[in-house]
Amino acid sequence: MDLGSRLAGKHILITGASSGLGAHFATLCARHGARVTVGARRKEKLDDLVAELTYAGAASARAVSLDVTDEASVKACFDALDAPLDTLVNNAGIALSSMAIDTPLADFDAVMTTNVRGVFAMAQEAGRRWRDAEQPGNIVNVASILGQRVAGGVTPYAISKAAVKQATHALALEWARFGIRVNALAPGYIETEINAEFFATPPGEAMIKRIPMRRLGKPEDLDAAFLLLATDAAPWMTGTYLPVDGGHLCSGL
Q1: How is residue 3 annotated by DSSP?
Q2: Which of 32, 71, 133, 178 is 20 to 30 A distant from 104 in Cα terms?
Q3: Beta bridge partners of 139
């Protein structure tokens, strides 16, 4: 099955797309001929990405300024869409590193507001519009294996991703009657420019050794699972939490 071909002409909205996995997924969709709308707070970075997406072959690429923590910004984002939406990718998220006992409540609130409230706000707005238009819809929430297992120093993030996992199940149950599917992609540890320095340290190398496949993931390792969820290739799949982690979740305790 050629999953990529199923994106041709589809309209995909991706949040948190100014860098990292969001930018990677946007490029993947563009490469397969999708109409791509990217949203984030850093509009200037989005403008650069749009130029790259157009070069990559997107049917259309647009940037919208988006703060998922702000209700007015969420509504304005959907109002700005220039075509009916097929798939929402809830990728925006933040992670703050500190031991739980020392974490300021303001930091905890910031993580929850972006990673949980932001996901819900975007999903709710998309869901309402699809329901009212009597159109099917598709939501891919970017979760994490830290929503199922835990690690030290990222407790608020782990809590938030567990909430995203459960939200995926709950929304899928409620919205199946409207033809709206909701699934979650749960990456393991993915190598990026941001974490490369840490994984070169002894603690980072020790963490890699605990991954059964003995390596970090690369963004492209997520592509097949992402395409399965973001397209209509699996129309009877909803409420699914799909880990892609090199076997990390099944590692021994």
Answers
A1: T
A2: 71
A3: 88, 182
Residue 241 CA to residue 230 CA, distance in Å, equals: 13
pTM score > 0.90 for this model?
Answer: yes
CA distances from 44 to 18, 39, 62, 106, 238 (A): 9, 11, 12, 27, 35
Across the chain, how many H-helices and E-strands are there? 9, 7
Alpha helices in 39-183, H assignment, sequence order:
43-56, 71-79, 105-112, 118-133, 155-175
Residues with Cβ within 8 Å of residue 149, at least 6 apart in sequence: 248, 249
Give the strand pairing for 180-187 and 11-15.
Answer: unpaired
Q: Answer yes or no: are the C-beta atoms of 41 and 62 closer than 8 Å.
A: no
Q: Which of 100, 216, 218, 226 is nearest to 157 (CA)?
A: 100
Phi, psi of 37 (to 5 degrees): -115, 125
Three-class SS state of 162: helix
Q: What is the pLDDT of residues 182-191, one digit of tens each?
A: 999 999 999 9
Task: Tell me whether residue 241 is one of the annotated catalytic residues.
Answer: no
CA 59, CA 102: separation in Å to the nearest integer? 48
Residue 60: is its pLDDT beyond 80? yes
Per DSSP, what are the bridge partners of residue 61?
A: 36
User: So what's the pLDDT on residue 65?
Assistant: 95
Distance of CA 23 to the CA centre of its chain: 10
